Amino acid sequence: MTEISTFAQAPLDSVGVADDAHWTDGAPHELFRRLRRECPVHWSAGIAQSPQDAGFWSVTSAELIQQVSRDWETYSSATNFVLNDHLVPMFLVQGMFIGMDPPKHDRIKVLFQRGFTPKRIAEHEDMIREITTGVLDAIEQRETCDLVTDVAQPVVSRVIGRFMGLAPEDDIVWATNINRMLGFGDPDLNPGGIESLIAELLPPMFTGCMELVAARRANPTDDLLSTLIFAEIDGDKLTDEEIFAGFVLLMAAGNDSTKATYTSCMRALMDHPDQRQKLIDDPSLIPSAVEEALRMFPAFAHFRRTATNDTELGGCAIKKGDKVAMWYPASNRDETVYENPDVFDVTRNPEHQAFGAGGRHFCLGTALARLELRILVEETLHRFPEMSIAAEPTWVLAQFSSQLKTLPVRLYG
Ligand code: HEM
What we know:
It contains 16 helices and 14 strands. By secondary structure, the protein is of the alpha+beta class. Strand 8 and strand 9 form a beta hairpin. Helix 10 (195-218) crosses helix 12 and helix 11 runs antiparallel to helix 12 (240-271). Bound molecules: protoporphyrin IX containing FE.
């Protein structure tokens, strides 16, 4: 209600879409509804909590986001892929293939694509189910737990840890580092503030990654880190900085995204017991419920592009160098695409833009994410069909990675 009263009358040209004030309780759906209707390409003059960052365009309709996403020549990823330009050093941002344009982007991505097809990913089903049931076994004797820290985090970090070839005892350290990096603006996750990422967080991460790299250079393995280390792009090996960037990209993409979608999905199921009952009665609906959770609660609130020349979008004049944010929580509730977009309907099985809008950077991990999410929801509902919310969940204060910080539950209703 606060949101509605704040935005119903406010002139849109004075709104800063990425200002913290709009994001304390997750994505600002009321503001996005108004933007889609009145101003689907909107200019924000800056970011209140990050005055050094320039203004930017917000795109909120599904059709216009698709237009931006598919036109990499006009809307480049190579400057940066998030709105904040002062988070981490540019070598890290631009060393990740998500921060590159073709041809280099395509040459690095292709190294991984064969291992991420639905068929190859399906081979990991038993491993993922074993990890999930092991984590659920560990909480079974308890009455309450936090689904974010006690279930989602250990499962997703072990799964990506297996793909990267990491030791299980290191999962928590890497997960905490990645949570801090993606939750950079949240005082609980990153108490030191943005400056602390470069000063305190990155040096030990780089050193830890280089220890793993040295071990693999001595004894090659068949994990994703070795893929980065031994890759040859146009006859050249990746530099240590580029290997580190690739490592951080895969760890970040694999950790927080699936965790975010699983916890939001479980929250919605507990908030809507009729929908949960449908899944308990007919578990074949779970993949559809996963797509609905991806649609309603996309794990990444935005990806950014930068205009390579003067252009026009939705009637607005975009200048060369302007930042353009594609807001997926907005496009996934576009009322020209979805009937009753704010209703969580496990039978909807929607198409959506949670994995991107069909452009070059479309998510590499879709098959893995879908498999993990299906198994997590199946096993949780099977083991704890009466689970209920024990206290008000909280959101990470973030405009990039959009996720719950806490989801306290009673395991047996
Ligand atoms: C619910 C889970 C996930 C969601 C919602 C998600 C979403 C996304 C989105 C929105 C993008 C950028 C699309 C664009 O800019 O056009 C992306 C890219 C990417 N995702 Fe995911 N992702 C998920 C899980 C994963 C997992 C499990 C991995 C596994 C490693 C992964 C790896 C990647 C990579 C490597 C990229 C960069 C692709 C490129 O630049 O071409 N993602 N993801």
